[in-house]
Amino acid sequence: MSAGRMTDAEKTLIESVKRGDRRSFDTLVHIHRQEGLNVAYNLVGNLEDAKDVLQEAFIKVYLNIRNFHGESQFATWFYRIVTNSALNFLRKRKRSQHIFNGPILDKEGEEKPLEVADERYQPRKTAMANEVNNMIEDSLGKLSEKQKTCFILKHKNGLSIEEISHIVKCNPSTVKVHIFRAVNNLRKVLSRPI
Amino acid sequence: MLKCLFIKRKLYDYSDNTLSDIDTIKVKRHLEICSGCRVRLEEIKNVINLASAKEPPRPSEDFWRNFNIDLNRKLDRRAARPIRIELGFRYRLRPVFAYAMIIIFFIGIGGYFFKKGHNSLGQNRYLVEEVMALEDIGEEIDV
């Protein structure tokens, strides 16, 4: 998913969006929506939330495109916005999970488990594939924010170290260390005998 | 043992094909004689394969049509909001916001320099390697 060089057509499109042309903005959305969805989906883990994150990111793009001066690729700038929106969303979700983490009591005052739909339940997939997928998602969830972001952008979205360093705003060596640590932590969890 | 420590921190780059030619040869030679490092390399490849195996969804055109409608509605609502006027109004009426902003600014500056001090790996690849080596040594001691 390398961004490549920004074409003249894309530059013209961005200039039109800067002037407030909504049709050009729609075209820009059309060009970048799938890649943006991939980044958002890999970070938040489900399509519905990824859709909200992506919409939020596109709104930020429209409202702030005047601040984009073309020093980097538009795609890189856009991925940074999607990544930040996804991370903000995850932080909010984490906070709301903390709020509702308290025990639920039944009529007799006994503690009872929270009854929620299991989002991981996907009858079409085999049990084994499900288990492996869940293990990976769980292990990714236990990584630090930076490790998780760098690992996902590199190995799920196929971005280069250089691109990731622009997105997470740290230098390439630090990105490499984050990925190295993420792989090491995942390896330890996934290599454990089931 | 020391050779393994050196090789283990190169294995990720080796699996990612981003190692220099000299280091690639060193790692290859070592892997031929060391089963422990071969197992480690397999584990690294396994992690990367498993993590990248899950394909992101390719939604239908219907999904995107609804997405666009929803996006345009949200955008109209957001674009119509007079953000700057509202902020200016609050700023004039409540000077406490100005003080809060100044305090936040100085905390931010302080935080930036604090973080910079702790995150000064910079472009120094030797320092990066040191970090990786130290983690490997720590791991060996754990084992």
Task: Describe it.
The complex is a heterodimer of chains A (194) and B (143). Chain A is an all-alpha fold and 194 residues long. Chain A is built from eight helices and two strands; from the N terminus they run ααααββαααα. In chain A, strand 1 (104-105) and strand 2 (111-112) form a beta hairpin. Chain B has helices spanning 2-8, 11-15, 21-33, 35-53, 61-80, 83-93, 95-118, 125-142. Classes of the chains: A mainly alpha (194), B mainly alpha (143). The interface between A and B is large, with 40 and 39 residues.
SSE topology string of chain A: HHHHEEHHHH
Look at the helices and sheets of chain B and give the structural class: mainly alpha
Largest sheet of chain B: none
Please report the number of helical segments of chain B.
8
Structure class of chain A: mainly alpha
Bin the strand percentage of chain A.
under 5%
Assembly state (oligomeric): heterodimer
The end-to-end distance of chain A, rounded to whole angstroms, is 34 Å
**Mean model confidence by pLDDT of chain B:** 81
Distance between the first and last residues' Cα of chain B: 13 Å
Radius of gyration of chain B: 26 Å
Largest sheet of chain A: 2 strands, antiparallel
User: What is the N-to-C order of secondary-structure elements of chain B (H for helix, E for strand)?
Assistant: HHHHHHHH
Strand share of the residues of chain B?
Answer: under 5%
Short account of what is shown:
The complex is a heterodimer of chains A (194) and B (143). With 194 residues, chain A is mostly helical.
